[in-house]
Design a protein that fits this description.
121 residues, mainly alpha, 3% strand
Amino acid sequence: MTYKYYPITGIPAGRSPNGEVPLRQEIDDWSQKPENATQVILFLLALRRFQDIPPDRRESFFQIAGIHGMPYKSWDEPDTSLAEVDKKGYCTHANYLFPPWHRPYLLLFEAGSRPVRPVHS
């Protein structure tokens, strides 16, 4: 059986007419603006849906949050042991690799419970 990897593609919607992605707003500012009330409610509902995915599923909040830190567990690497994950780690805080590592992590987190077609290896 072929293993199906989980592609991290980002969310294609929400771009401006010229294709640019809007700048991220600081969360305290964004969440306090009355004109963003609908967005905030939708975000909270989506986060709740994401957190309701059973923890043993690869696309669950628990599994994806685990990439960032605890629990140390391999993610989308079927042949990686717990000992190997602990040695190599996933999150690169305090390292010059942090910005390029964190961008795809956030894209994966933001995708949340959005349906994804696995990629075959």
